[in-house]
Amino acid sequence: MTRRLFTCVAALAMVGLASNAPAQETLRTALDGTFAPHAMPTMAGGVEGFNVDLVALIGERLGREIDLTAAQFAGLIPALQAGTYDFIAAPVTVNEERASNLLFTEGFMDTNFAFVIPADAPEHTSLEDFRGKTISVNRGSAYDSYLNEHAAEYGWTVEAYGSNTDAVAAVLAGRADANLAGNTVAAWAARQTPGLALSYEIETGLVWALSFRQDSEELRNSVDRAIECLKLDGSLAELSEKWFGVTPAEGTTIVTPTPGFGVPGFAGYTESDHAPSCEGLAS
Q1: Whole-model pTM?
Q2: Can you give the residue ranges of the Solute-binding protein family 3/N-terminal domain (predicted)?
Q3: CA 66 from chain center: how many Å?
């Protein structure tokens, strides 16, 4: 049985929340509690991370309590569809297959690939700078596939490991010149490991978003508006700096509200001319 790890009680003084507003039901959500730095165990037995903070802030902006559970990622979407959860707090990459079965908020972050290199290595500003290098990667991952697909083009040698932790260790030990992983995982590894530095980022054009059942459009739209607010008021930029050590660039998804509700170009997207704002969210 999954274990409830914490309940975030929304502040009563949030913008637009009237003191006599009727109580609203707790929002039930879940994530993978082992996907650092988005969610990871604490010494006290709870979870912490970027997405843990993100859903707590969403609860505050909406004036709703959040009941957050940690569970295995593979079981999250089936549990959502069964009605166990109201939405999924884990970062889920939006693609055509998933959008045909789920509703998504607008993206809260770009899901790109990034390299980690030794801190004393020269700056790398393009894929050409990795030509002929040995690059470590988590075996079977999307990053492993990418490296192998482009190995002939760039002449790099791919060294696959059973975990990304081992792949990062290979860079520290000098067995590899760089490691390729997801941008946030790479940023976390570089921040937590002396002797490593975050390097070149490969843009995929994809985003991470929060996922809902297809019959939850009204709730999806409310959470989407809360995410827009968190972009506008700088909260998501602060979380990026806190958990990734990265100040978001202007125009990136994490600081730029998306028109409408959902991810443009994918099923479930709804056009809307609403102006992104923090006003009236908790009414």
Answers
A1: 0.86
A2: 26-247
A3: 18
